[in-house]
C-alpha cells in the first residue's frame, strides 16, 4: 500500500489546505510525509495491483472490501553491504499505525488440525486447535466522491484458554508463552515473488485469511435483507447475486473448499446446490505462467492441517473427473492432466486447477498472457469451457502514480485538457493536439528536468553519489529475477563501458543507469546478480577514463515510496523480460504515464502499450513469443552467440576472469555457468538486438525535441492503463455490478440533498 497520508489528502481534496495549515505552524509537509513508514504487505506487482484496485473501486463507488493479513513484519528492508543484499526485519508498526482501527467486536475463530467424524447428520470437524482472527480496518477513500471503502486485515490472536484447557500439567507460564505459536500466523510476510515454497506456516496463513474472510462475508450476508431465514435456516439462493469474490492468484484458493464446507457441513445445503452457489461466487485471476510459481500443496500437509478440506477437494475432483470421463471416454492422459491431484512422487494438489474448476470466470492480466493461459498453460480447461476464460489487462491508479508523485506534470496536463482526466484517463488522447506545440514541448521537458534534478539531489543526500542531471536516466526497477533479465542490462552496461575505454574521444551520450529491486532471501542467483551489478558499478564509477559519461547506481530498498521518487525522474524505462514470461507488468505503465520512453520486448502489457502509442514510439526489440518457442524446439545454445559476438564475449570474459572481482576471480562462476548451460531466459539470444536498440535510444536522446515529442505521444496513449478502466471491466464482465460516478453528499449534509453541489460540498 505504501504511505497513506498524501494519498488521503489528495483523494479528499485537502492537500493544499493541509500544506498551508502545516506551513503556518512553521512545519514542512514534505518532511512530515517522509516520516511515515511504507505499508509493505506484499511482494511486488501482485500486491501493488491490489492496492491500485482498492483505490479504483472506491473511486468508482463500488461497495468493495480488500481482505488480507496484517503482517507484523512486511517485506524485509534491503541493505547493501559490500555489494551484497542483507535483509533487515521491517518493523513497520514500531511507532503505531494511525490509519488502522482494531475491531475486536468482529473477532472470529479459525480452526486447524483435528479430525473428521462422519455420521448420519453429516461430517463434523472436531478436536481442532482454534486461533482467533482480529480485524483491523483501514479506510480507502475514493477520489473526490465522498466515498470511503474498507481494507480489512486480519491479525492472529491466541484464545485466552490457549494451552490451558487441555489435560494440563500445570505449567501455566509455558502455556502463556506458547500463545506465540498461534500468533505467529500473522507475524511475517513470505518474501518470495513468483516462487512457491510449500511451508506449513504459509499454508496456515492462506487458510487463516480465507476462513476469517468467508465468515465475515456470510455474517454480513445474513444481517442483510437478502439472507432471509426460512425457519432458522438461511436461504442462500441469492448469495452469488449479492457477493462476488475475486481470488488474487491461487494464494486464497482454499476459499473454494472452505465455502463448500460452510454450506454443506454447517448450513446443511445439498452438495449440488452448494457447488452451484460456490462456482457463481468465485472468479480467479492468474498472475504468472512460470511453473516454479504455481502452488502445488502436498496432500499429506493438507490432510494434517485441514483434514475436512482435503476430503472436500477429493469430492470436487471426483465429480470433475467423472464429468471429463463422460465427455472423453478412455482418455486417461486427459484425466491425469486435468486432475486437481498430481500423482507421482509426493501427491500434490494443483491449486490453479482447483481455482479454475471452482470459479465461473478465469482471467489473465494482459492480452498476450491471457492467450498463453488459454492455449498453453490451461489448454485442456479452455477447450472444455472457452467462455470461462477472459482477459483483463492490468492498470495503475493515476491518483498515486501521477497526481501524487508528479504534480508538475499533472498540473501541466490539466492546463491543456482540464482536470477531468484524473477520473477518466482516456481523455489523455486530447494531448495529441499539442504534440507539435513548441511551448508545450519545452514545458514537458522542463518538468522532467526538474524531477531529475530533485532525484539527483536525493541520491546525493542518501547515497553520497554525485550524478549528472543532464545525463539520460536509464532505470530498471522491479523484483530481481532471472526472467526479468537484469543480467542483460548488466551486460549492456559492461558493453558501454568497454566502448568508452576503446575510444574515449568518440561522442557518447551520457547515462546514469539505475537498477533497483529486492531478491528473495533464499534465491541465490538473484543475490549474485545484485552483487554483480554492484561490482560492475564499483569499477565503472571509479574509472577516470569514464568520468561522468557513465554512472551505475544500485537503488537500495526499492519500495512504493521510492518508486514515487524515481519514476517521475526517468527518461528510459527498462521492460526487458523474455517474451512470454512477464504476465503484464505495471511498472511499465507508471513510467509511460510519467513521461519516460520504454525499451522493451513484446511481452506482457508492453504489447498493448505499443498498440496504443504505435510501435514506432517505443523501443521494441528481441524475440517474440513465437521466436522463443522456435528456439526451444531447435535447442538454445548460448555458446553460439558468445562465439559470434565479440562484444558479448569480451563482457562475459571480464565477468569470468575476475575483472570486476579482482579479490575473488571466481566469484561469479555460478552466474557465468548459468548463462552458458542453463539459462531458461536466453539472455545471449536477445543481447545483440538489445544493444542495437540501445544505440537508437542514445541517438534519439541527442535530439531533445524529437525525444520529448515521442514522450508526449506516449503520455497521450497511456489512458487505457488506468486501473479505473480495468475495474470497470471486472465489474461489468465478472462481478455484474455497475460502477457509479455519483458523488454522494458529505456527512455534514442531509442525505437527499445529493446532486446540486459545488466540489467543496456546500450548496450550489
From TrEMBL:
Q: Name one Pfam family in it.
A: Phosphorylase
Source taxon at top rank: Eukaryota
Q: Which GO terms describe its cellular component?
A: cytoplasm
According to its UniProt record, the EC number is 2.4.1.1
Q: Which UniProt keywords apply?
A: Allosteric enzyme, Carbohydrate metabolism, Glycogen metabolism, Glycosyltransferase, Phosphoprotein, Pyridoxal phosphate, Transferase
Assembly description: Homodimer; enzymatically active. Interacts with PPP1R3B; recruits the phosphatase PP1 which dephosphorylates and inactivates PYGL/glycogen phosphorylase.
Q: Which family does it belong to?
A: Belongs to the glycogen phosphorylase family.
Function field: Allosteric enzyme that catalyzes the rate-limiting step in glycogen catabolism, the phosphorolytic cleavage of glycogen to produce glucose-1-phosphate, and plays a central role in maintaining cellular and organismal glucose homeostasis.
Protein's recorded name: Alpha-1,4 glucan phosphorylase
Q: State the encoding gene.
A: Pygl_0
Amino acid at each position: 500500500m505504501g504511505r497513506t497520508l498524501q494519498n488521503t489528502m489528495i483523494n479528499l481534496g485537502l492537500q493544499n489546505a493541509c500544506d498551508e495549515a502545516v506551513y503556518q505552524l512553521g512545519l514542512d509537509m514534505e518532511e512530515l510525509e517522509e516520516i511515515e513508514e511504507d505499508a509493505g504487505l506484499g511482494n511486488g506487482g501482485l500486491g501493488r495491483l491490489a492496492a491500485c484496485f482498492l483505490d479504483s473501486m472506491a473511486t468508482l463507488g463500488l461497495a468493495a472490501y480488500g481482505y488480507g493479513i496484517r503482517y507484523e513484519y512486511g517485506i524485509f528492508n534491503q541493505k547493501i553491504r559490500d555489494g551484497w543484499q542483507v535483509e533487515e526485519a521491517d518493523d513497520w508498526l514500531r511507532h503505531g499505525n494511525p490509519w488502522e482501527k482494531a475491531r475486536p467486536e468482529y473477532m472470529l475463530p479459525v480452526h486447524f488440525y483435528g479430525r473428521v467424524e462422519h455420521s448420519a447428520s453429516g461430517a463434523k470437524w472436531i478436536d481442532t486447535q482454534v486461533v482467533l482472527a482480529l480485524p483491523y480496518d483501514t479506510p480507502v477513500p475514493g477520489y473526490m466522491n465522498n466515498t470511503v471503502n474498507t481494507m480489512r486485515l486480519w491479525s492472529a490472536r491466541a484464545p485466552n484458554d490457549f494451552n490451558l484447557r487441555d489435560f494440563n500439567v500445570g505449567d501455566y507460564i509455558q502455556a502463556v508463552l506458547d500463545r506465540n505459536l498461534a500468533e505467529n500466523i500473522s507475524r511475517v510476510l513470505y518474501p518470495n515473488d513468483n516462487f512457491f515454497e510449500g511451508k506449513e506456516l504459509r499454508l496456515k496463513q492462506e487458510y487463516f485469511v480465507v476462513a476469517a474472510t468467508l465468515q465475515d462475508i456470510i455474517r454480513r450476508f445474513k444481517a442483510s435483507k437478502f439472507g432471509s431465514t426460512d425457519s432458522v435456516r438461511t436461504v442462500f439462493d441469492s448469495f452469488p447475486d449479492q457477493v462476488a469474490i475475486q481470488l488474487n492468484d491461487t494464494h486464497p484458493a482454499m476459499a473454494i473448499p472452505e465455502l463448500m464446507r460452510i454450506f454443506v457441513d454447517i448450513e446443511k445445503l445439498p452438495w449440488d446446490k452448494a457447488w452451484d452457489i460456490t462456482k457463481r461466487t468465485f472468479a480467479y485471476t492468474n498472475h504468472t505462467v512460470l511453473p516454479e510459481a504455481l502452488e502445488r500443496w502436498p496432500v499429506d500437509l493438507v490432510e494434517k492441517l485441514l483434514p475436512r478440506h482435503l476430503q472436500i477437494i477429493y469430492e470436487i475432483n471426483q465429480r470433475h473427473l467423472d464429468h471429463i470421463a463422460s465427455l472423453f471416454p478412455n482418455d486417461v492422459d486427459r484425466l491425469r492432466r486435468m486432475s486437481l491431484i498430481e500423482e507421482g512422487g509426493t501427491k500434490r494438489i494443483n491449486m490453479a486447477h482447483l481455482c479454475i474448476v471452482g470459479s465461473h470466470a478465469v482471467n489473465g492480466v494482459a492480452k498476450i498472457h491471457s492467450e498463453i493461459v488459454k492455449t498453453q498453460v490451461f489448454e485442456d480447461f479452455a477447450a472444455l469451457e472457452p467462455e470461462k476464460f477472459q482477459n483483463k489487462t492490468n492498470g495503475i491508479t493515476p491518483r498515486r502514480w501521477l497526481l501524487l508523485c508528479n504534480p508538475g506534470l499533472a498540473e501541466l496536463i490539466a492546463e491543456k485538457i482540464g482536470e477531468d482526466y484524473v477520473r477518466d484517463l482516456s481523455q489523455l488522447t486530447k494531448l495529441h493536439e499539442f504534440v507539435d506545440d513548441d511551448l508545450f514541448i519545452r514545458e514537458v521537458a522542463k518538468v522532467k528536468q526538474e524531477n531529475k534534478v530533485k532525484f539527483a539531489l536525493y541520491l546525493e543526500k542518501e547515497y553520497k553519489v554525485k550524478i549528472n542531471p543532464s545525463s539520460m536516466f536509464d532505470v530498471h526497477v522491479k523484483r530481481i529475477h532471472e526472467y526479468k533479465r537484469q543480467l542483460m542490462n548488466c551486460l549492456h552496461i559492461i558493453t558501454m563501458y568497454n566502448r568508452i575505454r576503446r575510444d574515449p574521444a568518440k561522442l557518447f551520450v551520457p547515462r546514469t543507469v539505475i537498477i533497483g529491486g529486492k531478491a528473495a532471501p533464499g534465491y541465490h542467483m538473484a543475490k549474485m546478480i545484485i552483487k554483480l551489478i554492484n561490482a560492475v558499478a564499483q569499477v565503472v564509477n571509479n574509472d577516470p577514463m569514464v568520468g561522468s559519461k557513465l554512472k551505475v547506481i544500485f537503488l537500495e530498498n526499492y519500495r512504493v515510496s521510492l518508486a514515487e521518487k524515481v519514476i517521475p525522474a526517468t527518461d528510459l524505462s527498462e521492460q526487458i523480460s523474455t517474451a512470454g514470461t512477464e504476465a503484464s507488468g505495471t511498472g511499465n505503465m507508471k513510467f509511460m504515464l510519467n513521461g519516460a520512453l520504454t525499451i522493451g520486448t513484446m511481452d506482457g502489457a508492453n504489447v498493448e502499450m505499443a498498440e496504443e502509442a504505435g510501435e514506432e514510439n517505443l523501443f521494441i526489440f528481441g524475440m517474440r513469443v513465437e521466436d522463443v518457442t522456435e528456439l526451444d524446439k531447435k535447442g538454445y545454445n548460448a555458446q553460439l552467440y558468445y562465439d559470434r559476438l565479440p562484444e558479448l564475449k569480451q563482457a562475459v570474459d571480464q565477468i569470468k576472469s575476475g575483472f570486476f572481482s579482482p579479490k575473488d576471480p571466481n566469484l561469479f562462476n555460478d552466474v557465468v555457468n548459468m548463462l552458458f548451460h542453463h539459462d531458461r531466459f536466453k539472455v545471449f539470444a536477445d543481447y545483440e538486438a538489445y544493444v542495437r536498440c540501445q544505440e537508437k535510444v542514445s541517438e534519439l536522446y541527442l535530439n531533445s525535441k524529437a525525444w520529448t515529442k515521442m514522450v508526449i505521444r506516449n503520455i497521450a496513449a497511456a489512458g487505457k492503463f488506468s486501473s479505473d478502466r480495468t475495474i470497470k471491466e471486472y465489474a461489468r464482465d465478472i462481478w455484474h455490478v455497475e460502477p457509479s460516478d455519483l458523488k454522494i453528499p458529505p456527512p455534514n449534509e442531509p442525505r437527499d440533498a445529493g446532486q446540486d453541489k459545488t466540489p467543496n460540498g456546500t450548496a450550489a
